[in-house]
Amino acid sequence: MQTDVLLTGTMGNISDVVRRSLESHGLSVEQMPIDQNVFRDEFGYHRGIKRALERITPRMIMPIGCQIALARYKSMLNESILVPVESEEKIRTLDSKCSCSALAASLGISQPTIYKSIPSDDCFPLVFKRDVSFGGQGVHIPKTRQALDQLIAHQRAGEPYLMEEYVEGEDYSVDVLRWHGYFRALCYRTVAHHGKGPSTERMPVEMPELVETAGRMLESIDYNGVCGLDFRVDKEGRALFLECNPRFTGGLETSIAAGFDIPYLLWELNIRKGNE
Question: What are the CA-CA distances from residue 172 to residues 11, 67, 193, 201 (Å)?
């Protein structure tokens, strides 16, 4: 069965937002059924794609999550199938909080203070980040040295992490689509709810300096694809880079409502390039 897009590595409601976007433009969409934790079972993810391809023939495979797993599997796919995913190296550079922080530092982009060793007690609370996490699950704010020690103790042997200054301020995000000469971005302010987890309210704003910073970071490694970058603006108005997510983000619905239909644009740009 011929279909336009196969969505893989579904995450929460993001895959539904992507599907609705594509279907609103008349495209046929299939979602790969998930029966295991695809983030920890790469071979299961690959098996899921293989089974889906036995049933359908998509013009494009569009990843929601698991970009690295698809980047590794890409060479095994029929070359006629479009796969808008970057190389594993570029994805890891942005997805790793440690390497992305190092990239920002090399470009002179302002960040919260990074602690190379356990800081003094007057630096608490601070922010503890596991190197790779999803949906904010790997970000913690320990208020004491004891709490920090417990987080470090639960790390896997050799697993990197980041410790940085906790900064009061407002959170902003920039959703970007960069594709072989095409660049478009939307900045929005995120308003966190009172519980844990990702923000639920977002408001588009004009912050050209954040868009410029986002473009500079992606251009520095020639990253092509979808990406979201997070910032905090402190009480003095300084914009500080926090992290990068080289995938569709939780703000996707806000971007589409503002006229920046990222999934459909990604489809159009790929089809156009594939026809060249």
Answer: 22, 24, 15, 11
